[in-house]
Amino acid sequence: MGETMTKDQYILGIETSCDETAMSIVKNGVEIVANVVASQIESHKRFGGVVPEIASRHHVEQITVVLEETFSKAEMTMADIDAITVTEGPGLVGALLIGVNSAKALAFAKSKPLVGVHHIAGHIYANRLNKEFTFPLIALVVSGGHTELILMREHGSFEIIGETRDDAAGEAYDKVARTLQLPYPGGPHIDRLATEGQANINFPRAWLEEGSYDFSFSGLKSSVINTLHNAEQRDEVLKKEDVAASFQASVVEVLTTKTYKAAKEYGVKQVLVAGGVAANQGLRKELTSKFADTGIELEIPPLHLCTDNAAMIAAAGSIAYNQGHRAGWDLNANPSLDLEKYSLRGQQR
Amino acid sequence: MNILSIDTSNQTMGIAIVKNGQIAGEYITNVKKNHSVRLMPAIDQLMRETATVPEDLNKIVVAKGPGSFTGVRIGLATAKTMAWALDIPIVSISSLEAVAYQGSFFNQLICPFFDARRGLVYTGLYKWSPDQKLENVLEEKNTLFSDWLEVLAQHQTKVLFLSQDIELHRELIDKTMGDLAVIPDTSYHVPRPSLLAQASMAKETEEIHSLTPNYLRLAEAEANWLKQQQGKS
Ligand SMILES: [Zn+2]
């Protein structure tokens, strides 16, 4: 990039993979000009989780509203935009389709380049809106659908070195929260309760085979559910705060330990945390103390960039665009888009 | 006046470009294939072949359902965004009404319908007025076809049935309606996107942001939730 980039570059990002209709304009891949997120959380609350059909219905109602708000906040028009980038996957197919088709319509109507972006690449690049990357780096991605350790040796290159074999960390949070009868979404409630309780129940930690960077949270989840169930049978009352603290201690210890080991083994300069669970205070605190005085830089995005947003899609999309990725008019939503295959697009230029 | 019309609400994918009342081009496929992948390449091709650039367009017309929920949304997301980007008016037409346009020369009742599984259909009742305006006689709804046909039979007048799904229901139509049922050849059942453009002439322009699909049916989770709420009270 660099040498030929004399003029500022403005990238539009569109994200509709789950229950947020989001658009953003990002300057030169690193600076947010406008960032609009229309959350549907209130609509899904009564169902105790995201209902795909309802999410899709909201997206189609919100799409041009969010578009207009984004441009009016940025005080820009489509003429100022260099490329349109959109989450292509993974995510809910019906939800993704709204963003993808809207992006295609916009690109076609205004003759702009179109770029498909991997949602997780987006979560990782949320960090670049805060701080420039130094390679090699490792990203810990933790969300409702993902728990992954990703090695990056250069921009646009993603190698998965560890991933969950069953539930994602965020999924375990949601299920445990439901068992504790906490309102949806449960993650933040567990995080809050955990600070008020003692980690005095010894829940299991799944370390898996020696040297593995994979994760497993289904055993932990079952253990929490069984413990609560057994206590109930004995008419014993466990403090919700203690259950939350003990559960969180198990999740955080495994995530932190494996991230630390991987960071050492690959000799990375930076560790990035990404995804909705990156907002978790317990995790932030533990990682901060683990990486203090190691010489490895720990970066965690501000809360509003941890959850789904389109600034992260524009940030990742800006790299993809500059590396020559282009989508055709046949771009489709890909609910199970593979990160490593996506990563290869950058090397096929 | 250059109009682009788009219909992805059901199995038929249709796009038309109508220039000053003349059909410049029309693209129709009637296969079970992904509209999301094929819509924009088809628009691109049709625009090229009719030497139309996006800036030439003055209006977008879209079929807003009923039909496949996903299909309807692909059309609406595309049409709404294009209209917004080009700052041109948008008009939406019920997908059933669009099918009723196929019966322009029939002077009695017209019943377009789409199969909605488990004996249900999306349907409505239309009639051409003496001054050639399509009027809605019975409101569109999602209903058991057998119930609907009982109501139609009471009109004691001929009814033209138009539907891609006609074969699924031909027996029931014949049984309930007997000689009152008129079922034309196959080509009349496929919705033509150019008729959307024609239909739009009689319609008001809509506000882009508030244009929503004509689902005629709640999301399943929503319907179940409402049922539960009623059970509680
Ligand atoms: Zn996400």
Question: Can you lay out the helices and strands and say which pair or pack?
Answer:
The complex is a heterodimer of chains A (349) and B (233).
Chain A: E1 10-15, E2 20-27, E3 31-39, H1 41-45, H2 52-74, E4 83-89, H3 93-110, E5 114-118, H4 119-125, E6 137-142, E7 147-152, E8 159-163, H5 169-179, H6 187-196, H7 218-233, H8 240-265, E9 270-274, H9 281-291, E10 297-299, H10 303-306, H11 311-322, H12 339-347
Helix pairs in contact in A: 2-3, 4-11, 5-7, 5-8, 6-8, 7-8, 8-9
Chain B: E1 2-7, E2 13-19, E3 22-29, H1 35-49, E4 59-63, H2 69-86, E5 90-93, H3 95-100, E6 109-115, E7 120-128, E8 134-144, H4 145-153, E9 159-162, H5 166-177, E10 181-182, H6 193-200, H7 220-232
Helix pairs in contact in B: 4-5
The complex binds zinc ion.
Zinc ion is lined by residues 119, 123, 143, 308 of chain A.
Any ligands, ions or cofactors bound here, and which? Answer: zinc ion
- Class inferred from helices and paired strands of chain B: alpha/beta
Gyration radius over CA of chain B: 18 Å
The average pLDDT value of chain A, as a whole number, equals: 94
Strand content of chain B: 25-35%
In the sheet with the most strands of chain B, the strands line up as 3-2-1-4-5
Summarize the main sheet of chain A: 5 strands, mixed
| CATH-assigned fold name of the largest domain in chain A | Nucleotidyltransferase, domain 5
What do we call the CATH homologous superfamily of the largest domain in chain B?
Answer: ATPase, nucleotide binding domain
Measured between the Cα atoms of the first and last residue of chain B, the distance is 55 Å
Number of helices of chain A: 12
Largest beta sheet of chain B, briefly? 5 strands, mixed
Any idea what the radius of gyration of chain A is? 20 Å
Strand content of chain A: 15-25%
Estimate nothing, just give the exact number of structural domains of chain B: 2
